């Protein structure tokens, strides 16, 4: 399992206006949701992890190696990033060709790239559209194409930026299963999210960003119980937790399923 160790990380597009302000954090084998309001520094942070931006001070260590010593191509073999907007990634004429771009660029043979890309499309339930132009698909489907593109690269670290954007219940279920499968394969999985309910239901650990700083991090149940600190970052608790609190159910419940189980147990007592 890969580990990312972030030490005293600072970054600014304009040095007069810092965006990342002294982040110290270890991202390990726990599935981790990174939450925070727009402008809190989340997307900039993951671009730094991916090597698309370089910090002006501090270090990012991938399994002990400073990524500042690596090229973007070398980092690409280790860290896969699914962008928030799939249209920032897509440029080929067919879905299959699009998904094969990443695998080919990191050195997979043509046969390997085709095989891994088809397996990835199967994983996101798009196997039947491999010869379709990606721009003939809707936004949610294009997002899945972007996810498949990264899955096919088989990187030890996978980062998602707003994977549930535009997804319905079925789409979110697919993303949830993808994250669970990656975790079971021993990959490190990190995800930027605005969807508190999805974060609570899927991720073991939650990291809260506020104004470029690390406000809070820990077990998902513990973090989401900190109502006042979340409000400080202009974030809300998951709906299930709020419902449980209104009903007076103890335990900081995270999901609707937990609330239903608690109510059922109460009825049966």
Automatic annotation (TrEMBL):
Which SMART domains does the record associate with it? AAA (SM00382)
| UniProt membrane topology term | Peripheral membrane protein
The parts of the chain that form a coiled coil are: none
Q: Which residues form the ABC transporter domain?
A: 4-236
Predominant location category: membrane
Listed Gene3D superfamilies: P-loop containing nucleotide triphosphate hydrolases
Provide one Gene Ontology cellular component: ATP-binding cassette (ABC) transporter complex
GO molecular function ontology, one term from the record:
ATP hydrolysis activity
Where does this one sit in the cell?
A: Cell membrane
Keyword annotations of the record: ATP-binding, Cell membrane, Membrane, Nucleotide-binding, Translocase, Transport
Family to which the UniProt record says this protein belongs: Belongs to the ABC transporter superfamily.
Name of this protein = Energy-coupling factor transport system ATP-binding protein
Source organism: Trichococcus patagoniensis
